[in-house]
Amino acid sequence: MSSPTNSTTNENDKAHWDKTTRLMYMHLGAWFFFGYVVHFFVVPLNKITIPILNFPLGFYMAAQGSLIAFVVILFLFAKQQDAIDREFGVAEDE
Amino acid sequence: MTTATGGSSDFIKNLGKMYATYTGTFLGFIILLAVLEQVGVPNKILGYLFVGFTIAVYAVIGVMSRTAEVSEYYVAGRRVPALYNGMATGADWMSAASFVGMAGTLFLLGYDGLAWVLGWTGGFVLVSILIGPYLRKFGAYTVPDFMAFRFGGNTARMVAVIVLVCCSFTYVTAQIFGTGIIASRFLGMQFEVAVFAGLAGILLCSMLGGMRAVTWTQIAQYIVLIIAYLTPIIILSTKKYGIPIPELTYGNAIADITAREQQMLATGLATAAGLKPHIQPFINYTPLNFFGIVICMMIGTASLPHILMRYFTTPTVREARQSVAWSLLFIFLLYFSAPAYAAFSKLEVYTNIIGRDLTEVRPWMFTWGELGLIQICGKNAASIDAIVAACKAIAGHTGVVRLQDFVINTDVIVLSTPEIAGLPYVISGLVAAGGLAAALSTADGLLLAIANALSHDIYYKMVDPAAPTVRRLLVARILLLIVAVAAAYTASTRPGDILAMVGWAFSLAMAGNFPALIMGVWWKRTTAVGAVSGMIAGFGLCVFYLVVTRYFPGAGVAYFGMSSLANPATGLPLVDLAKAMAAPNAMDSWVLVSHPLASKVGWFGLNNIAAGLLGMPVGFLVIYVVSLMGKEPSKEMQAYVDEIRKPRGRTVLEEKT
Fold first, then answer.
1. What is the pTM of this model?
2. Which of B33, B223, B315, B616 is deepest in the core (most CB within 10 A)?
3. Residue A17, in any domain of the structure
C-alpha cells in the first residue's frame, strides 16, 4: 500500500477538484435532460414528424436521439476531464 | 496471448492486425458455409459447423491466454487499450436478453419498450463521470476491495460480496438459460443437455486465464455478435427501401404500421381494447414505472460489479474514461438497431398475416409454430391445416386472421427475420452464433465477477491472507467451476420468471452498491459505519420489496399496506383486492408467477422491477445521517480519497503478486 504523496490538501488539488465537480454536474445535467426531460414531452413531440425519415420525434428521441447524445457526452467528457487534469498538472504521463 | 507470461508490448501493438485477420477469417467462413449450403449440405450440419467453429475459436483464445500471474488473472495485467476494452465491455454487457429478447420486447410494447433501450445505455454516462475512473485509480481487483478499504474492513467487504453474489447469480442463470434455448432451437439438442454444453463453452474461456482470457475472447465474441445482429436487418432494409441503413429506413415502417393500425380497427381486424398503437406511450407501463425502469437500469448499470471491474483493466485512468465512451459506442450499434427489427417484423405480421385468409399466410411462420412459439386461434401454428382447424372451433370466425387470434413469443422476432427476408439458412446460422456469443460473453464476465469475489475477497482477504499465489489461483478456479455448475443446474430447472429476475439484478445492485460507491468517492465525510448501515438498509429494503411483492403478496397487502398496481391503459387497479384477498389462496407463501396477486401489488403503484427506486434513496439518507452522527474519518483516509481523485501517481491499493 502506498502512502499519500502529500498529507495536506493543497490549493492546486482543491481547484482541480472544484473544476472536476463542476464538469460532473454539467454532464449530469445533460444526462438528465436526454435521459428524462425530453421524454416527459413524448406526447406533444410525437405530433412532429421528422421530414424524409418519417419518424415521430418523441419516438425517435427515445429510440435513437438520446442514445446518440449519451455517446457524444461520453467522448466529450473524456476529453474535457483530461484537459482539466493537464491544466492542474495531475494528468498521467502519456 | 501467445505466451503464458505476458508483458510483451508487441502483443498489444499487433492487436489491430490480429483482430482484423480474425474478422476476415470469420467473414470467409460465412461465405464458405454459404457455398456449402448451395451445394446441398443440410441445414443441421451448417448449424453445427457455425456453432462449433465459433466456440472452438473462443476456446483456443481462452487456452492460449492461460496465466499463472495474479494480476493477469484478476485485471488482465492492466494493459488492455481503451478501444479493445470498450469492445470487450460491449460483449460483457450485451446478453442473450439484449440480442434475442430486446427486439421482441419492442415488438410487443412499442414505445414503452424503449424504457429498456434508454435504461441500458444511459447508465454508462454515470459510470464515467461518477465512479469508474476513480475505482481504476484506487487500484482494486474487485468492487468489494474498494468497499473494504474505504469503509474500514471486512464488514463492508462481506456486505459488498453479498450484494455482488445476489445480483450476479440471478443474472448468470439467465445467460446460461439463454444459451440452452439457442442451442436447443438451432442444433436440436435437448434443453438440459444444451445447458451443460453451453457451460463447457463458458468454462473453456474463463477457467484457465481469468480476466485476461475473458477479455480477449469477449472481443472476438463482440465481433461475431455485431456482424450477426446487423447482417439480416441491413439486407432486409436494402431489399425493402434500397438503403442499407435500417436505422434510417424503419421510420417509414413505423408510419406504415400506424396507418395499418387505423385500417385494422376500421375493418374489424382488431379491437380498440386489443390493439396497442406502436408509438403511443404509457399504455404498457404507467409513466411512474416507465421512468422508474429507466432510472433503475441506468443506475444499476453504474453499480453492477461485472461492468465496473472491466474498467480496472485499462493502463491509465485516462484510458478508463475513453474506454467507457468506446463501450457505449459499441453497445449503441446494437441497441439503436433493435427498434428496426421490431418495426420490420411488426409490419410483416400486420400486413402478411393479420387480415389474410388462413390458407394464404406466409409459410415462414410454420417453422416457429411447430415449436409452439407462434400460435393462431389458441393452437400452435404448425401448418395450414392446424390453424384452419383451430379457428373453425371459434364461433363466428370468418377464416381471416384477426389480431386477437395471433400470439407470438418475443424470442422469434430476431431469430425469424432472416426467413422473413427470404435469406438462405446460412444467415440464420449466423444469427444463432451471434446469440450464443452474446450469452457466453456475458456469462463469462459474471462468473468471473462472482468467483473473484469469493476467491479474492473471501478466501484470500478474509480466510487465509498468507496463501501463496498458486493456491490463490487454484481456489479461484475451483470456485469458478462450482459457481458455474450451480448456475447451470438452476438454469436447467427452468425457473419461471427468469427475465424479470434480470431486471431485479439491476435494482439489487443499485440499492446495495450505488450510494456507498458515490458517497465513498464524492463525500470525504462518509464514515465506515454510515456506509455499511446505508448498504444494509438500502439493499434490505429492496430485497424485502421484491420478495414480498413477488412471493408473499397476500402478506404484503394484509400486513404492509400494499395495494394493487394500476392498469396503465385505464388507470384502474390490476386486481380487485377485496375479491382476491377473500380467495382461499390469498395468503399463500412462495406463490407461482401465475398467482393472481404475484408482482401485482406494491407501494405507490411501483412495479417490483423498479424496487431499487425505494432502496437507493434510503441508502443515501442512512449513509448521510449515520455519517454525520459519527466521528469524521481519519486524516489519513481523507488523504487517500484525495489520491483517488487525481489520475497522476501510484494506485492507492497495491497488491503483492
1. 0.93
2. B616
3. no
